[in-house]
Each structure stands twice: as structure tokens, then as C-alpha cells.
Amino acid sequence: MPQPDSTHELKIALAERIFVLDGAMGTTIRTYGLNEADARGPRFADTDKDLLNNGDILSITRPDVIGDIHKRFYEAGSDICETNTFSATSIAQSEFFVDDPREHGGRKDPEFFQKIIENPFLNELAWEMNVESSRLCRKWADNIASDTGRKRYVAGAIGPLTVSLTNSPDANDPGFRVVNFDQVLTAYKHQIRGLIEGGCDILMIETIFDSLNAKAAAVAVQEVYQEDGLRLPIIISAAVGLGGETMISAQKVEAFWNAFAHTHPLAIGLNCSLGPDLMKPHLEELSECATTHVSCYPNAGLPNPLAPTGFDLEPPHMEKFMSDFAEAGLLNLAGGCCGNTPEHVAAIAKGVARHQPRVVPVIG
């Protein structure tokens, strides 16, 4: 069921304190020790490809686990949790349910992906994933809000896809694209409508590595709003490389802001890709130029296969880094990406609670 537009109340709340986002769904899922049979459940028992790395399917096959993760993040202090829908589009789910033509001498191209976005099974699956994931997160947001007396919000997670509109995968054909803009737009609109139907408060276009993919998602949001006569706040967050560029599309932080400022996001931010130490200069640049709220949810340092979470930084480290960011006036929303468990988020919440939120510049 669509939620009312919470933009105004969120802006009032964000002027009073730094909001806390959640942590890493994938990292936390791995702590439950699930196996392939858990991921498949009876419904997908006969699927040809492995599904254990398809975390979004767990909203259907193991909603108890996903619900418990949302519960733990909200209890840790998250004001906003994301739905378990990072890859819940027909395009992304085709990786798990459709034979890869490249394994038989073919290639993925717009003709292949046209069949994907018209595939009834994939469309029904993507719809169910988004609706059920949104409902599941909504349930725990409302439960924890009722228990604590503080409203919690649900952000519909819209991931970057596994394909690129910006670059060609074929070095001999730089004009070739595996998918076209309209196909990506169609897949995103389907996902967005499912997230809204399930009851999310916010739409979050996140972990952007390809700005043109994100543009398609932003256009999808605007078209759904116009066609369906509704509006929800949006948050836009990019993954950046060491040089501050949005990965393969190579937009620097200020260009990234300028590319999406016209969408009037509730917040724009950086996530994933880097630990907080390496992300800081890019966050400073974004905070300087953005005329809306700024979010940041970095990885827990760099990958380390010997660490319990697969990443170096422990909760006290994240508390210190995010507290320093807040003290420097860089943050309106803070959380963690890969490697950040509910324990990390509890530490982040403690760290930023000591500081006032970043002051949003007034235009004109």
C-alpha cells in the first residue's frame, strides 16, 4: 500500500539530528550460515543455477531471516532501513534463472534483454520480491516504532544492475551496448512500482557505479510519480573510486551532484567502494557543493578475508570515523555498507548522536 509523502516531516527531523541508516544486508545474511537449500526453499528446489548468492530471493524463501535482520538494525538505532531488493529487477534476476548465451558462443545484447524484460516469470518474480521485501521491512519499521515511540522509515533499495549503459564490454566495438536505455527504464519502473506497493517511504537509488544507469532509475522514478499520481522522497548514493569518480562513468563528485540536482533528492551521498578514511575527501567535496542533505555509508574498511566480516574495521573504528565526520559537519545521514553488521550500526548511532547535523546551504 503506497505511503504518504514524508518529505516535509523528514526535512524537519533531519534539521534536528543526524539520521542513522542500516548496515550491510549481504554481510549480515552470511552470519546466519545459510546453505543452498535454504536459499532455494521448496519453491525453487529444481532451479538449474545456484541461488545462495541471490540474497534478494531470501525475502521469499527465508523471510524469517530477512525480517530478523531488519529488526536487529532498527533495534541498533537505524532510523531508515533498506529493503532487500538490491538486485530485484528482471535484468539482474536473469543472472540466476536464464542461461548465459556467452556460454554457448553467443552474446548478451539488446535482443537478449528484450526477451528478459518481457519474460513473465522474471517479471512476476521481480514484482513479488519488491512487494514482499518492502512489506517485510515495513512490518519491522512499524513494530520497532511502536515499541520505542520513534518513527522508523523504509527505503526501497534500487541497485545499479549488472549491466552498463555507459561502456561497451567489447573492445573491438566501442559503440556496442548489451542493453538499451528504454529496457533499463522499463525494468526500473517495474521495480519501483513494486516497492511502492509494498509500503516503502523513500526510494533509494544506490551504489551507483554507472551514472547513466542511475539516470534511467531517476527517470523511472519521475515517470512513475507522474503516471501514478504520487510522490515519495528519493535518496541518491554513488560508489566512488580512489580518485573520487563514480566508477566506470568517471564523474567526479561535483559532477555527480550536478547531474542529479534537478531531481531534488532528499539526500545525496556516497556509499560502498571505500572505507571511511579513503572516502573522507570525497565526502568533504560533496558536502561543500550539495544544496540538500548528505548521506554517507562506507564499507567497514578494505576487504580482508581473514576478518570475521570480511572487512578490517570493527564497530569501535566505525564509531570513531563517523563521529569525526559528524563533528566536521559533513553528515545528515550515516550508516554502513559492506562489512557493517548491526553491531557496527549501533556503534555508528552512538558516535553520531553526539553531534549536530550538517547545515544544508540555502540557495539564493
General description of the model:
By secondary structure, this protein is an alpha/beta fold. It has one domain (7-352): Homocysteine-binding-like domain (TIM Barrel, Alpha-Beta Barrel). Helix content is 46%, strand content 10%. An eight-stranded parallel sheet has the order 1-8-7-6-5-4-3-2. Helix 5 packs parallel to helix 8 (120-148). The longest helix has 29 residues, at 120-148. The radius of gyration is 19 Å and the shape is globular.
Give a quick summary of the entry:
The chain is of the alpha/beta class.
Key phrases:
364 residues; alpha/beta; TIM Barrel; 8-stranded parallel beta sheet; globular
Distance between the termini: 38 Å
Q: Into which percent range does the helicity of residues fall? A: 40-55%
Number of helices: 14
CATH C-level class: Alpha Beta
- What's the rounded overall pLDDT mean? 94
Q: How many discrete domains?
A: 1
The structural class is alpha/beta
CATH fold annotation: TIM Barrel
Radius of gyration: 19 Å
Superfamily at the CATH H level?
Homocysteine-binding-like domain
Q: Element order, helices and strands? A: HEHHHHEHHHEHEHEHEHEHEH
What order do the helices and strands come in, and which of them pair?
Layout: H1 7-16, E1 19-20, H2 25-30, H3 36-40, H4 58-61, H5 63-76, E2 80-82, H6 90-97, H7 110-117, H8 120-148, E3 153-158, H9 181-198, E4 202-208, H10 211-228, E5 234-238, H11 253-260, E6 267-272, H12 276-289, E7 293-298, H13 315-327, E8 333-334, H14 342-352
Parallel strand pairs: 1-8, 2-3, 3-4, 4-5, 5-6, 6-7, 7-8
